[in-house]
């Protein structure tokens, strides 16, 4: 690289790491709220949240140490890739696909669309594989720009794959919710679906825009590290969107407790929407959007809801 510009290299990384630390603080606060509000959630879900938080913690510590090495030990020059920065890519490369798999599983549980889940899980596997290759390539490459030139196809594949997964998950969930809302005639059901759509659009839109922006920056600005700064922040956005989705269930629980006034009349575990007056119906399982205690209580009161 002939003209070294610290503003778009080290400066971009510093900005990305500062934003990442702020996002990690927000994520930690959301984790605290989650365990306080939902102590009776199933243990696999609580374990998943703990694992993602530990990965995020390791990721944050590694990038802070990597920034120290690049600014102090390397005197602000791009003369090598700190090992701690490479380790941060490993942790984020595991946390990102885990969060994406969480949203894919939610789509698979809510809607009887196995082909969509299989497609997204396949893309997630290739995303994880590209992250592993990027980590291996980082250990065998001396500088960031040499890594970018040598492993460009791996980075490009991983970024595009990530963007496709986010778009597919967010768009499919919004599409099926909006489609189900159109065929619903119950006011309580419409209100619940409106709440779900309002929860889905912001989280899915933010992560999708970030993934697309990362791809654009990597293609159009190869001589700086803006794309790497965005990639550092991206995994924290995923984690925050997951916890926002989990903690947002309290609003659904409030609506459910307010709306369910007739004994045995449950709308949470399974909603049936008439598409026409004949026999074609769409069954949507919304149990994953609600707290486990609410879903279990309503399944017991209405055994036909989960069939």
UniProtKB/TrEMBL annotation:
The residues the entry assigns to the signal sequence are: none
Q: Does the keyword Electron transport apply?
A: no
- UniProtKB keywords: Membrane, Transmembrane, Transmembrane helix
Classification of source organism: Eukaryota, Fungi, Dikarya, Basidiomycota, Agaricomycotina
Name recorded for this polypeptide: DUF6534 domain-containing protein
Q: Where is the DUF6534 domain?
A: 163-250
**InterPro entries assigned to the protein according to its UniProt record, in alphabetical order:** DUF6534 (IPR045339)
**Segments traversing the membrane:** 12-35, 47-72, 84-103, 115-133, 153-178, 199-221, 227-246
